Amino acid sequence: MPDQFVPERILGVLTEHEVQFVLIGGMGAVAHGSPLPTRDVDVTPEASRANLDRLAAALRALDARIRDSDIPEGLAFSCDGTSLAAAIFWNLTTRFGDLDISFTPAGTTGYAGLVVDAEPLTFRGVDVQLASLEAIVRSKAAANRPKDLRALPVLRELLAAQTRARAVRPQP
Question: Is the pTM above the cut of 0.85?
Answer without folding.
Answer: yes
